[in-house]
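# step 3/5: fold
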Amino acid sequence: MNEKNGFKRFMPGGDKPMAPEARRRAVTFAIVAFVLGILVIPSLFSGKSVKTISYSTLIHDARTQRVLSASINNSNGVITGQLTDGTNYTANGPAPALTDEVNTLKGANVNVTFANPSGFASTFLPYLIWILIFGGFMVFASRQAKGQMNGMMSVGRSKAKQFNQDRPKTTFADVAGYFGVKQEISEVVEFLKTPARYKEIGALIPKGILLVGPPGTGKTMLARAVAGEAGVPFFSVSGSDFMEMFVGVGASRVRDLFSTARKQAPAIVFIDEIDSIGRKRGAGVGGGHDEREQTLNQMLSEMDGFDPAEGVVVIAATNRPDVLDPALLRPGRFDRQIVVPLPDLEERLPILLVHSKNKPLDPSVDMMMVARGTPGMSGADLANLVNEAALHAVRRHSETIGMEDFESARDRVMMGQERDTMVLKDDERERIAFHESGHALLAYVLDKTDPLHKITIIPRGMALGVTMTLPEEDRHIMARQHLEDSLCMRMGGRVAELLVYGDLSTGAADDLQRNTELARRMVREWGMSKEIGPMAWGSNNQVFLGEDLMHTRDYSDHTSQVIDDEVERILREQETRAIEVLTLHRRGLESLTRSLLEHETIDGETAARLIDEAHGEPVHPEGNKTVSALVGVGSNSAISRGAKPINPAAPTPGWQPPTLPAV
């Protein structure tokens, strides 16, 4: 029962009022049932069946004493009544009835009555039914038209979703890692809950908080956690929701959003992917009349304009802070920028534990090892990794998720799915084996390369073979020696083919592309060239909306030639260095190749043992430089410090084609 304006009304759903759509269906059903009742119910209570006879038969039966009663309708001449045997009859006679026939009926002791239907019901009821049907149709049509008109008039309303306290929550406890990020955001939540505590000291809460970080790092999840922790109205909207085909709709939706938030202040407004409307103004095409720019202007005014929003905190997320308008980032609008980076080792472990919390893990699973083997992965990547491991466990009909499932999931995520249908010829398999053995040998022998983890010649994704290395620890800066060893290791596949076959193949295309890009950045951006010196020239980024449509090179043609010469010098030096190292370890190269051709996949420990045996002594006397040797090893260990590398003769200035040894 619902009580409103002093009246009580019953509703079929209990105490809750009916929804408009349900009420409309109920009214339509009642009208249809009423009309059908008027048309059908009288026939259900008509009693016995009625016998139709002719008028002459009626007169004859009356004379033979077979008619008991007769009701004559003077308007249409219809005569109804009952025979002596109890049968109801109907007959069509003259209208009005003839006097002689009436006297005949009365003379035969027939109970004669006259019916003159001139009442309201009999006269107007058929017309009333059609009037009701037409009226109901008109009401239904008008409501539909009104709803469509309301939809057109509401195009400028905000599409933000409001979350209340009774909605399912995501709290900060569900967000693993990111302790500094959660602390800064929790200050906003705490201020909204207890503002007096901050006002006593004169502290002002930031009006806007911008979450910046790569895709998949959990910016939106952090906003959901704020919604769960805040206890105040929380409005969530995407930047693209403000844009529409009609001019002025975006600005209207911004006004409506902040107007609604002010009415329920204190409140939080979360704008996801704000770069879709917050790009730099006055660039590209469209000029100042661009719909996106008008939307941005309205947002700037609402956040800190002539009539700023009080008690409304705006939280926005983006992975492109470089394209945002400077007016949007100034203090008073987005006062605080919080970087949500890719998780490091200490943060990847709790993230993996959160995503695998409700999954049956085998006791042999070492989550620290899994976390160590997933550098550069975001929170979304780690969630996908755990799910892929679970799917692999199902495929092998296991009731628990084992370490091999995580290994397979990581290989799938990082290298791609195995291409079982690809059949390689024997000479192709051998060349690929030498190619990957060259990478693996240099990865193990060189001092500053990442530890060797796995080698395979099974085609995966777009690659015909893969040599996987994993870092000892999270690395935030790259030393020059590390970069040079990485260049040399990538040259290993090409150089191994050159040493063994005396010619080259297309298998090193990706290695050369990545090496050229890395060497160019060393020269042009990082100042690692004596000829260029301590200068950085930047890179030619792609044109995007919000930036200039034209790029100009800020160095001369002579400098460009020097950059090209330095890039060539670095790459040729590392190629020469790779030739010397592989020549010194030629037996180890052949031993690795034979093992790969036999087993197709070998781990880092096996590769290290084969190289050491072929070399006659351990290459790294202080311990194997492999991933398995890193378990439980800290940054102060001997492996982390690195063993003394092989130091081939330094290449002479000015590259010359190397003299290949006899095969």
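# step 4/5: annotate
The chain has 21 helices and 16 strands.
# step 5/5: archive (pending)
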